[in-house]
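Here is my example:
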Amino acid sequence: MHYKAYCFDLDGTIYRGKAGIDSAIQFVHQLQAQGIEPFYLTNNSSKTRETIQQMLHDMGITAPLEHIYSSSLATAKYVAKMSKDKRVNVVGEQGIRTALLQEGLIITEEQADILVMGIDRQMTYEKLAKASVYVQNGAVLVGTNGDIKFPNEDSFVPGNGSFVHLIANVAGVTPIFVGKPSPLMLQIMADDHGFDKCQMVMVGDNYDTDILCGINFGCDTIHVNTGVTPTAIVKQQAQLPTYCVENLLELIK
């Protein structure tokens, strides 16, 4: 197994909540010892690149800033291209807000043509109600990602997709999702660093996001049984990952 670009999901692959997954951290260290610097692609829109870099550092992983990609970055680039007046409504935390501002967009509390939703762990009924009104009044509903749930240290908690679908159901619309399983983040990373698809592999725990992202992009995939989708369920799918492992240490030979 020889790739130049190992693209790791984070939640459920490198860590669960704030706890690192030892086997994954050891595998990353093994790659770095071989001169291979991994990439990190997360659907979590709440954190900036700098925050993710610090989280990884606290778990014992040194990651270059330019090797970290989030659904916030991809969503901001997507919305900047589709927005006519550069004004957007936003539900979400610092990660998506920072990314939108860096793309020259203006965050407004007045009705806009686009409503962007990222994970918001301070979600309130008032925020959901206001977002529902904006979308019913014509705002295009764009979600950073469609994850229904993600793992913490003990079990699973609601993901951004749960809230986006709630708004979509109230407003009677179909949302646009930018994060995995869309191949957009992988494409941006490949373009930024000059990789061909045959040189890349997507590593993740969630079949519906991570693995399908790699399949949709056209690169190899590794499913690891440390997060959302159990291996037994993965093996029932029509499109299978290139590899399935219990943990990433199985890949070290």
The chain has two domains: 5-43+180-251, 74-177. The chain has a mean pLDDT of 95. The longest helix spans residues 22-33.
